[in-house]
Amino acid sequence: MWKSFFKGIEFLFVDVLMKPMDWLASLELSNWWVANLLNWIFILISCAAFYYWMKQLKIFADKNDDNQDTTAHSFLK
């Protein structure tokens, strides 16, 4: 019983969930850019989030709305 259970888990992860990663690994030898497309997408999303974050920080800094006092929290007093 336990052997078939773990064989099922092995089938799920090796033969089903990792097939796209195996395909990308084999694709790397022919076209590096396409094989790393997922990484480039994550980099672009991270850059957009960082830009948005910096824009929001500038908005709060321009309004003088941010509290930069080192005793802003009671545990820092």
Walkthrough of the structure:
The protein is mainly alpha-helical and 77 residues long. The protein has two domains: 30 residues; 30 residues. It is built from four helices and no strands. The longest helix has 26 residues. It is elongated and about 60 Å long.
Strand content: under 5%
Label the overall shape. Answer: elongated
Radius of gyration: 24 Å
Give helix % range: over 70%
Order of helices and strands: HHHH
Task: Give the end-to-end Cα distance, rounded to a whole number of Å.
Answer: 60 Å
Annotate the secondary structure layout.
Blueprint: H1 2-17, H2 19-27, H3 32-35, H4 37-62
Key features of this structure:
single chain; 0% strand; 77 residues; mainly alpha; 4 helices
Give a brief outline of the structure.
This protein has 77 residues and is an all-alpha fold. It has 4 helices and no strands.
